[in-house]
Amino acid sequence: MKFTRLVFPGVSMIAVTYGLARYSYGLLLPSIDETFQMSDLVSGIISSLFYLAYCFTIIFSTVMTSKKGPKPLILLAGIFAVSGLLIISSSLSEWMLALGVLLAGGSTGLVSPPYGAAIAFWIKQPLQGKANTWINSGTSIGIVMTGVAAILLTPHWRLTYFIYAILALVILIWNKKILPVPDSTLRIQQGILSVRGLKGATSIITGSVLMGISSACFWTFSRTYIEVAGNYSNLELSLFWVVIGVFGILSGLGGTVIEKIGLQSAYTLFGLLMGIAPILLFIEPGNIVVAYVGAALFGIANLFMCGLLIVWGIRVFSSNASLGIGVPFLMLSIGQVIGSVLAGTFIGEIGYGITFCIFGIISAVASFLRTS
């Protein structure tokens, strides 16, 4: 299959599911809060549903991709994204908002495993790494899109989510037309998920959970924090989100960085950078330059670490690559569930500044775990 014929729809689908359906919530949270008058704890609990849904759907998708092939799961991810975004845009209560969040969050878990299989099926082996890198960059592109949309449409969050839903529908139809049904001779090697299979994986499981906990606070509350702490215009607040996405695109160079300095050094370096980002907001939340530097560090470090977990996982589960991807991402999302709830609770009790400092320290401490 021609490289761009699969990669372009893949980039778009990842941008919709991860960027628009999942990560836009933190950017639009202040306007949503204003509508429903939600407490920080309720905001954190609803945000945790993105990650909770991801935990279940990534397991389901991994199993079903092996049985049904990639196309039905990719289309199901698109249907979840469209449905979730439409429900969020028309929410009449926090409960309806939570339902939309569950569906939107579930789309991200559904889409990743089948696109990995699609690349293995239809892209020649020497180009598969490049294809994976490009498709994963869709997350950053989606985040940039949400930032631009916020500049143009704030405070109309319902209209914003409705437009996202229309975009998701167009991309769903595009994927339906482009993706072929696998030839019956093609087979996906099925992984075996068992406690015995996790032996020797303590470090990567711990690192993934801690990274998930520490990143959840920034993804959910950073935009709200700087809005509360500083005298920023809507344009400046939206550009904060765009900076995260733009610098996240640089994470596509992660494979080269790991080759140059090694897995351990790369993990420690970018874990520290991810910890410095929220601490910068703690030190100078009202300084726009510092806030943008924090956003840039978080964008490149967080998305780089997601790619690094794949490399690390495949090394740990060298005999079973599916576990190498599935286990760290599942643990990452469990950490994000915990982190969202903890962050919402802490902010309500001790305020934004100290909470962001604590979550930055968690990331810094986790960066010294051994990768071997």
Automatic annotation (TrEMBL):
One Gene Ontology term of the molecular function aspect: transmembrane transporter activity
InterPro entries: MFS (IPR011701), MFS_dom (IPR020846), MFS_Efflux_Transporters (IPR050189), MFS_trans_sf (IPR036259)
Ranges that cross the membrane: 45-66, 73-92, 98-122, 134-153, 159-179, 200-226, 238-258, 265-283, 289-311, 323-344, 350-369
Pfam annotation, one family: MFS_1
Domain called Major facilitator superfamily (MFS) profile: residue spans: 7-372
Main location: membrane
Compartments reported by the entry: Cell membrane
Gene3D superfamilies membership: MFS general substrate transporter like domains
GO cellular component: plasma membrane
Membrane topology, record value: Multi-pass membrane protein
Protein origin, superkingdom: Bacteria
Keywords assigned: Cell membrane, Membrane, Transmembrane, Transmembrane helix, Transport
Protein name: MFS transporter
